[in-house]
From TrEMBL, chains A, B:
Record's keyword terms, sorted: DNA-binding, Transcription, Transcription regulation
Organism listed in the record: Hymenobacter ruricola
UniProt entry tagged with the keyword Hydrolase: no
Name of the protein: LacI family DNA-binding transcriptional regulator
One Pfam short name: Peripla_BP_1
Matching PROSITE patterns: HTH_LACI_2
Key word Cell division present: no
Every HTH lacI-type domain range: 4-58
Superkingdom field: Bacteria
GO molecular function, one term: DNA binding
Amino acid sequence: MTPVNLKSLAEQLNMSIATVSRALRDSHEVSDATKARVRALATALNYEPNAYASSLRRNLSKTIGVVIPKVANHFFALAINGIEEAARQSGYHVLIYLTHDDYAREVSIVQHLKGGRIDGLLMSVASGTEDFAHIKSLQETNLPIVFFDRVCAEVATAKVTTNDYESGYRATEHLILAGCRHVAHLLISNNLSIGQFRQQGYLDALQAHGLTPDPDLVLHGVMDNEQNVALIRELLLRRPDIDGVFASVERLAISTYHVCKELGRRIPEDVKIIGFSNLEAAALLDPPLSTITQPAYEIGREAAKILLRAVEKKKAVLPAQSIVLESTLFERRSTASE
Amino acid sequence: MTPVNLKSLAEQLNMSIATVSRALRDSHEVSDATKARVRALATALNYEPNAYASSLRRNLSKTIGVVIPKVANHFFALAINGIEEAARQSGYHVLIYLTHDDYAREVSIVQHLKGGRIDGLLMSVASGTEDFAHIKSLQETNLPIVFFDRVCAEVATAKVTTNDYESGYRATEHLILAGCRHVAHLLISNNLSIGQFRQQGYLDALQAHGLTPDPDLVLHGVMDNEQNVALIRELLLRRPDIDGVFASVERLAISTYHVCKELGRRIPEDVKIIGFSNLEAAALLDPPLSTITQPAYEIGREAAKILLRAVEKKKAVLPAQSIVLESTLFERRSTASE
DNA sequence: CTGTTAGCGCGTTCAT
DNA sequence: ATGAACGCGCTAACAG
């Protein structure tokens, strides 16, 4: 099977490679007649330009990279959806890499990306990452980078996040206004700025409503879910006065729900729960849990758009702006009360 | 900033480009001394080979493509996870494309892929796809293809699926053995072989246990969820004798759960429900629903491994074998009965 | 062991 | 409006 490339097309049409190339790229310096001839044969033979030759020549790959901790997570899955949508609209391809929150793996991936394989990078850093030299080094190769969700404060570039501080504030206030006086806060311990912001929103909301923050009511969860269930059980037993729980992570909200059921604490009469969530699980429980939901799809889409705009303009250095998208608070009540 | 490539390295080391290239690729025909010198400079300057130049020259991109209907779906998200894992282990990159179950989009993507951008393709076809000419045409470019989950019978190549027939059979039998006599089957209407297999398993299980299949008990759902809820409500009202429901799709199982609650049918006393599911939602309901769960991660991983093996051996044509992985039946009972 | 040469397929000069 | 020639960065064949 003879290869279908510019050369073979040119031979069959009795013209030069250059003319065929120009015709296919719709150059204005080629007659309409030949354009038609070239295109006819190209589509007939199902010609598709070799992406690598083109990339090599133009030093531009029409490909962006996405580096995220995981994909089996509704937030990131939705974000990828948004990214792919924006990329496709601009004719870009999407390479995906998973770090599994492993620092060494993240470094290895980022190093690999220096080979000019991508025109731009979208990234959500691994939770364990504290040293950002690898990212800075990548940025120095003039590769545009946009962070989303788990941003990296030490690297100056565009970032797309949600209003974590305000969400924490609103979630906590929601519980307070519903009558809660002893609101616990569950979060996963790590050095991500996200958790810190939500935590601060929680603290400020308490203060603003005349409640005294109690460190004993703040539970730092771990990675293992079984352990978290035990920690939550312990907390609820130690502090029977808890009448509201704000969970920074969906799993912790669900676990709280189960522990409450197990301990016979009625929801929401005895304990009201609100949690960050991008999954529908919380809404399906009986009674359903109220949630703060991040606009994951929009975050991915917006981040990709900003990146692609920079790529198209060959702007390697992005302004270190922070785009903040609003989360939505869904208040859910049991429908069984009718 | 001077570019870091073989040429610049060679100049600084006073040797030829070829030697540098060989040293970096650890060729056995280069002295250890020069290898050391080359590597030292390469790492010092953070050299990374240009992926496109290499791909063009070797006609091999170390990249595989993944074409799936959507990613915001736990099954596909887990599958991608498995694919990325296998790819990474073999040093491959992963390009991702979403069809959103749109035939035109699938065709456009597949056409794009003919440019030699990928060394192999993993694919789950769009639900609306009936004409497979675009896929066959891609296969004719000697690109190895492996289907997973939503396979395409008309194209002869390797396929990785779950035991849909058997799963349908086991799910139905599970309900029958639990005492159900009037088992309904809910599925999404389309021309995918998957639904057909599950349906056949359902029918055969009924027959095997002396029950007569009743076409009135088979509900063909649609894409819109609101409509499905209405259809299910209508079915349960029309047929109060229904005491078991087998849902081929998670959403239908969840919807059935809600309709039962709304109509005052107790679960599982009045109606037992079992559904295909890859999400934890079904397990979180109260009472939890029993599920048939596909090994999504393993499917992705296995499919990728088969594909990569073919790619490495430059075997364009894969044996038209079908790998079938076992689903798991989770029987869940309410824990509140204690 | 190392250097020289010749492309991979394409896009962009510079000619005509 | 078209063709000839060069080079993107890298690898492979052939010399020595």
